[in-house]
Design goal:
There is one protein chain. It is built from 3 helices and 12 strands. By secondary structure, it is of the alpha+beta class. It has a 6-stranded mixed sheet with strand order 9-1-2-12-11-10. A 6-stranded mixed sheet has the order 3-7-8-6-5-4, covered by helices on one side. The protein is globular. It starts with a helix and ends with a helix.
Length: 167
Amino acid sequence: MSALAEKIDHHWNYADEVEVLTFDMNGETFALEAVIVQEILDLLPETAVPGAQPFVASVINFRGKVIPLADLRLAFGMDGTEATIDSRIIVIEIDLDGEATLVGLRTDKVNEVTTLARSASEPPPSVGMRWRADYINCLVKRGGEFIILPNLQALFSSRHETSAAAA
């Protein structure tokens, strides 16, 4: 089994399907495993963090805890957009360096919780991608569109290392 096929199998936890929350950013549909989603919030007041990476340039107060607010658009090289009535923050819990970490993700719109089939998933193409392939676990074809499952570990680990190296 290739390393890429192993990575995709691991992402699906060797199951045939996974329950996800889908959301939109800049006209693209993304999905996160539903099990990591803690809450979906209306936009909250943000506090800028001087010297922080643009990708995580602010923090929010979530249930009395200060958590980073990430804009995946910037990580993927997309243009930032103005908030709309549909904009939401998805609070997720991910493991960073062995520690459970809460992070808010800014989105244009939250769509639905749905189930995606592993049989419909494909690795990101190695040619012609406008984003870094290591930032994408896989693409899942549904109807006439592709749903992007981002590699949160790669996104946050590389950003964390970059900010640590700059310190």
